[in-house]
Structure formats: C-alpha cells, structure tokens
Input
Amino acid sequence: MYVIGIGRTRFGVLKESITQLAYNAMYEAIFDSPISITDINAIYVSNFLGSSYEKQLHLNAVISSLLPELRIPIIRIETGCSSGASAFYQGLMALSRFENVLVVGVERMTHATGTENIEYLAMAGDRKLDQEEGLIFPASYALIAQQHMMRNGIKREDLSNVSFKNHKNANLNPMAHFYNKQVTMEMIDKSPMISTPLNLFDCSPVSDGASAIVVSREKKSDRDVEVIGSDLATDYISLAQRKDITSFPAARIAAANAFRQAKITPKDLNVVEVHDCFTIAELLAMEDIGICQPGESKYFIRDERTTLHGDIPINTDGGLKADGHPIGASGIAQIFEIVTQIRGEAGKRQVDDVEIGLSHSIGGIGGTAVIHILKRT
Amino acid sequence: MVWQCEKCNKTWYYDVERCIFCGGELDAIPTTQLKIKGLTKVFIHSSEHKEVPYYILLLEDCFGNSQIRKTFIEYRVGDLFDLKSEVAYLTEKVSNSIIS
Output
C-alpha cells in the first residue's frame, strides 16, 4: 500500500467554506499524484462536528457534489479527534477491493464562540459520566497531567518545553496555524490557567482546515511512500472507566501491532507525529508508542532529543499544538507531514535522512487510537 | 454505581442485564466510600457549566473503581469525598438563590 499523493490547506482562522476547504485539499492531493480524479475508486471523508458547527450532515454526498458525476462509493468516518487517521486506516483497508482511494478530512471551527467550542468538543466524552459532570477536555487532560506529575515527576516546565518546541517548529511550517507567530517561554508560562495544571499554551488551538491523501495498491512513482504498518484500537470512552490514566492502552496495542506488521522497533523511527492536543498528551504518546519507558518521556524533553536536531524529532510541523487542530483534518495532516519528511520536501524543517516515520492519533482520551508507519520506497 | 458479571467479573458503568462475554448475570455494586485520587480546578465556562471556577474530582472506591464528580468545594488529593458536605453546600446555595 502506497501514499501516492498528498494535499492540504493552511490551518488557522480561514475564510473558506467547508466545501472550499475540502475541495482545495482534494485538488492538491490529486495533482500531487500521478493519477487523475477519475482513477479514484472510493473516498473516505473525515469530519467530527459538521452537524454542530455547520448544521451539515450527509457529508459524503456533499463531497460527491464537489465531484460532478463521479458517483463512486463515498463514506464519512467519525471517531472523535482521530477521525482523520481512522479515515486513512479505512482507506487502506479498502485497497483490498479498490485500486485507488482518496481520503479527505475537513473541519471548520473558528466561527463558533468559545463556549460553543467547549460544548461541542466535550461530545467526544461520555454524555453522563463526563459531560454532565463538567469534564471538558482540558480538564480530562489536566487530570492526566496531575496523575503523571504525581507518579512520574513530570514538572510544569516539561509541559512548557513541549509547547515551546512545537511553536518553534510551526514557525518553519508556512501552512501552520501559528506560522510567523513568535511564542516565547514567558508567554507560555504567563498564559491564563485553563484547568490546573494546564494553561492556555498547553492547549491546541481551534482551527479551520482540510487535508487529503491518495493511496494506491501499487507503487506508481519514485515519490510514493509505502505504508508498512497500520492499526486502530479502541478503549473505554471515559476516564472514570480506567484504572490508570497515565497511559492509553489502545495506543499501546495499536503501536505494538503496527510495529509487528512493519517488522521494526521504535528505535528505527526517524521522525514521529503524535497527537499533542494538550502538551501532556505528547509525553504520554512517547511512552505509549515505546519511544521510551513509562515515566521517562520527561528526560527526552529535557535533553532536547525530540527537537528538529534531536535523535527522534517529534511534531516537526508544529503538531496539533501549533500546526493547528481542525479535527477532521488533523490525523491526515500528520501523515501529510510524515510523507513530506520522507520525500525530503519539508524545507526549513526537514530532518536529515528520513527513511521511516510514524503517526499517532487519539480520539477523546484514548477511546480510539490509530498508528501508521510509513517508509521510503 | 457499577455492574459486575458474577461469573467473569467484567465491569460495566452502564446498566446492562447480562454479560455479553459469558452470559452471566450482573450484580449492581453500590458506591462505597470514595477517596480523592486526583483533582483539577476548571476556569473556563461552558453552556452547561456556566459558574467557574469549579473542581473536577477523580474519585476511587475501595474496589479501585473510579468516578468523575463536579464540585464547588475545595478538596485535596487523599481526602475522602464527603456527600453530606456536598448536599449541605448545594442546599445552602439553592436557599440563597431563593432568598435573593
């Protein structure tokens, strides 16, 4: 299975409609690939909250309307914040039946009020166990951060360093929400408290954007990137249902299965994209993927091993934290970045000699986890 | 309240009648004394939770089952969750709002 085309829009506060965003990303992906739109056999579209933000459901038919008279199977995928990665996973599965599949993710969020955003995003948690008890997402990850701090000695400055690194990377990514926005450690540390111990700069932004990828059963050009591992696992939706909240079992399972398929270990990775919806999530991800042992991620941050010039660069595009988090598009944009790095086309943020990269995407607080491993051909 | 299979011990947080893994019947396990395992103070409001700041407690019972509870009372990790204080706080709050 190969990625043969990638496309995305800029992430941020954008004026385009949801149809324009999706169309632009699909257009870029198709014209990045060696095939035409009429060679596409099926499409998976990822979107989380179109019903709330846009009053628009039946999004597969909206995409169909953007592709006049194509009339191929199009299906919408929703798994919370991991919707994009899940659509990609499903696209790969569909290659057992189809030759070429297009995966597109889109979300438009910035026109909603802050209160609406908090309410809509909370819908990825359990209605009764979480939402009715006021467990909004920053509070969920704040509890995770607190437990991690108590158990593993993570410090407040470790979280700030994750934020600072990702903002620094975003400044090298012209497509990022925070491109050309200088963020200092002082700004991070003095930003308003959201839910103790997490402040504003621990949280990923609300963004608009779209991303798309074309996958194919066969290799079609030297720019193609092979998918050598792909897995999705699920778990309880609520923190209340977990015995231990300092690790996401679904992420551990998906990562282990993906590494088994790829016949590699975490030590073979050259670049990694993780789901840093909150800074603490990046630390959790490193441990769940197996980049380090439980409780050791803080040392990787302190020793700057995850920066662009470290031995395991993480979130080279700025991550969800600073590239942005238009939910339906985020998981696909992570794969866009891995492909871009493997192709050697990442410009100022290019990591040297990238052969293998991994993307890690999470729905909610680990109710869904999706891992993909890609390799240069 | 959690529901536990009497045969295979799997646990549910939803009121279901039979275990889908082994067909066993489920016992309702009532909540016992709850200890505060973690907490966070939330400063941003949402449409369903307008009054801030409030606290979210991560509670654990003697069987290791967890619960999430919203409260306006300040606790510390390790404290016992006190339902009487919660009821008294809410009663006083309702009374005050009626008076005002």
